[in-house]
Amino acid sequence: MDGRAPRTSRPEDRALNTPLAESLSVVLLVAVLAWAVVRPFGWPEAVLAVPAAAVAVASGAISLDHAREEAARLGPVVGFLAAVLVLAHFCDVEGLFRACGAWMARWAGGRPVRLLTAVFALASAITAVLSLDATIVLLTPVVFATAARTGVRPRPHVYACTHLSNTASLLLPVSNLTNLLAFAASGLSFTRFAALMALPWLVAIGAEYLVFRRFFARDLAAAAPPATPAERPELPLFALVTVACTLAGFVLTSAVGVDPAWAALAGALVLAVRALVRRRATPMSVVRAAAPSFLAFVLALGIVVRAVVDNGLADALGHVLPGGSGLPALLGIAALAAVLANLINNLPAVLVLLPLTAPAGPGAVLAVLLGVNIGPNLTYAGSLATLLWRRIVHQHEHGVDLKEFTRLGLLAVPAALVPAVVALWGSLQVL
Amino acid sequence: MRVIAWLVEGTWPACVDAVRTQAPQASDVVLLHVSGPEVPGVAHGAFAGLLGRGHPERDPGDRLEDLGGTSAAQLLEAAAARLGRPSTPLERTGRVEREVVAAAEGADLLVLARDGDRARLGPHSLGPAARFVVDHAPCPVLLVWPEAAPDLTTMPPPPPHPPHH
């Protein structure tokens, strides 16, 4: 995955004039996002996204060349993502997340603050290495069960999982799809990306921890019963060794200039083949773990967003986006990225901002990442998507309490984002 | 006599023991557990944030609801065993403090445990939910300590005498 040449901002030959093409592209994008949130009839997100991308190409809102270029750019990213998803899925099959629950229970011994600390440590590590999907889908239920079993109130700990799935996804290119996209655009090596993001990652997690200790002080001070001896966790050695080797593979491949996606693929294959041999998986379940419809969705979304960018958004945002790589510029870029992620969603936000910031160098790209990764702690999926989701998907339930989530986000997002940007700026000066 | 014991993770054994020692043998005992909807809601929201992942069956919020239901059932089962006399389990879902007050309608006694910070004895030894229930309970309330009650030495020294005028 090498650096990409700066793109021209307009397609050359197109059938539609710019305002019409831009309107069409925006309508397509909104439709794709709305469909992805609502999922009518339970159909996959790609069912609308792929035809929408086809319409964008057919109508000339994006030239065939640009669409092909976008697909060629996103292809390797999507492959990398599939490998990481499979890796996380089979870590679960190997019992890694069950073991996490047992470790947390033993270490915390029924003390809520210790359990919070354990959740912070494990959720940060799992998000960084196995991506945010793993933390939300696989770790959150384990954390809840652990809290319930040891008599600790689960609220702060479940909130910690959701917040860290965003905030702790800064460290590695594999931690978040947004990172994979930025990684491809930035031209950084895997190790340099990690080195530059290490300090912002730690600072952001530390800020979240302080906010959580204060915000949930009551829950964390609440009664807990005398600890019952927790069962001894079975060590999922094979999964741990495979993940460690995959991480080493990332470093090694980037040192010799090979795409680190191959290391992820190798790790995923090792675990998948082991599961197949031990009859814990079928070829179908391996394919399902790679989430093919999600991959198609990402490709199609990329093309639709590119049409929106090409037809005028690039010019409009170009005026707002601060230039340069000084601290004020980085703060401005990160804030704009956070706002955009909260208005639409962080996935389209990063697709929009990357081509605009990539020419300014890796500092600007990483600042975009800080904004789009930490920002979603304010509105889950972006405010439009969250409104749709709440009104349509969960309209019959009273459980989705956006007030508390938003109050926590209003404290945590600025508290994590500003120091993280300063830390990034510092890392850029030193490294 | 109809006795309701509100059981919460962590502190429930004290409530059950209080029912055993304080309620007459012939009481009609109800063991109540209320699951709040907020925590699964947080997980639902986080999954919605993963745009495009599909597979609604992987939504962790649903698993949290199931897990919450299972752990509530286990808690009530363990409580019934500890009580050792006939009782009725009652599982409710909703705003915890309001559900407890509603469930206590028509009861002769509501048993609950302190749910706050007991490191510093004082107003904070009641959390918001217990505070609400104590304030709004439609019947007499028996408020128990989750562990042995503190002895008299934990009482703060009396305030200094007011100056004579």
UniProtKB/TrEMBL annotation, chain A:
Q: Which Pfam families match?
A: CitMHS
Cite the entry's keywords alphabetically: Arsenical resistance, Cell membrane, Membrane, Transmembrane, Transmembrane helix, Transport
Citrate transporter-like domain residues: 43-364
Q: How does it sit in the membrane?
A: Multi-pass membrane protein
Please indicate which superkingdom the organism of origin belongs to: Bacteria
Q: Which residues cross the membrane?
A: 20-37, 43-62, 74-97, 117-147, 168-187, 193-212, 235-255, 261-277, 289-309, 329-354, 409-428
The answer to keyword Transmembrane applying to this record is yes
Give the subcellular location.
Cell membrane
Which protein family is it in? Belongs to the CitM (TC 2.A.11) transporter family.
Protein name, per record: ArsB/NhaD family transporter
From TrEMBL, chain B:
Which InterPro entries does the UniProt record give? UspA (IPR006016)
Residues in domain UspA?
18-144
Superkingdom of the source? Bacteria
The record's listing under Gene3D superfamilies reads: 3.40.50.12370
User: Which residues lie in coiled coils?
Assistant: none
Which CDD domains is this protein grouped with? USP-like (cd00293)
Q: What is this protein called?
A: Universal stress protein
Which source organism? Answer: Streptomyces tropicalis
